[in-house]
Amino acid sequence: MKKVTKIDSRAVNPIWENEKPKLRVAAYCRVSTDSDEQKESLETQIRHYESYIKANPAWTFAGVYSDEGITGTKKEKRPELLRMIADCEDGRIDYIVTKSISRFARNTADCLELVRKLQKRGIFICFEKENLDTGTMESEFMLSILSGLAAEESASISQNNKWSIQRRFQNGTYKITCPPYGYDSVDGMLVIN
Fold first, then answer.
1. What is the count of structural domains for the chain?
2. What is the pTM of this model?
3. Alpha helices (runs of H) in 56-182, residue ranges in sequence order
């Protein structure tokens, strides 16, 4: 018969037993123009997320990353987004909160690529407006649909703006704030100088 040795369990300090490491949470904000209204919106977003993250006792504030006056269609042109992703890869961030999918990315392929890249590292994103957390099972499907809509919205806005400018030029009603080189604006009309 084999001999069995009983090993007594060590006493566990009840304080340590319930203690979980705090999540290092960062926020991402973006506005697409540098107008005064958008700057104010960006400042409001930054203040909101800083206080929102700091108010959660399970979280540690890891910073707010914000791109100002930059389109959301190309991730390569968004230095703060790229810096945030690099910080995630370096293990400085565990979770990201952002206002909406359209603030995070207006390009479906970029959005899904970034989300999947972060998910592989166990980092998830909360999109507040859509009430979507990429840590849930159904998030990939919803994210695909909603990011597609955000991309389509961006294309539609761009197309509408181009159409509007073209029509105003044709009707002679376009307001020129900064005339092209070699021209002056006289009573709203371009005049060769």
1. 1
2. 0.64
3. 79-89, 101-104, 108-120, 139-171
